[in-house]
Design a protein that fits this description.
It is a single chain. This protein has 6 helices and no strands. The protein is mainly α and about 100 residues long.
């Protein structure tokens, strides 16, 4: 697996150690460009919309992501042990549909 490298594990640990949203925001701003942050946020938003059953056309319009990117996110969302599934369930523990 591609995470078995010290630098990548250090990156994961940095987020674990951050402990609060302010520090995580500061770390993201230091690590990523605004465009990269926007891209990651849009991908997570797309995953939430897909989870809620939104059509690709609506997701494309709301996130400005390509249908190819949305399709890739959709494939990853199918994996119940994957990160998207796990984090969306933490956002939305009662199964309510409210991601717009």
């Amino acid at each position: 697996m591609y995470w078995n490298y010290p630098d990548k594990e250090r990156l994961v640990q940095a987020f674990v150690l951050a402990e609060n949203t302010h520090l995580i925001r500061d770390l993201l701003k230091d690590l990523l460009t605004k465009k990269e942050i926007d891209s990651l946020a849009n991908r997570l938003h797309a995953a939430c919309l897909l989870y809620d059953g939104a059509p690709y056309s609506q997701i494309e319009q709301m996130t400005q992501l390509s249908s190819k990117t949305i399709s890739g996110i959709s494939r990853k969302l199918i994996d119940k042990r994957g990160g998207f599934q796990q984090i969306i369930k933490k956002f939305n523990p009662h199964g309510r549909r409210y991601f717009d």
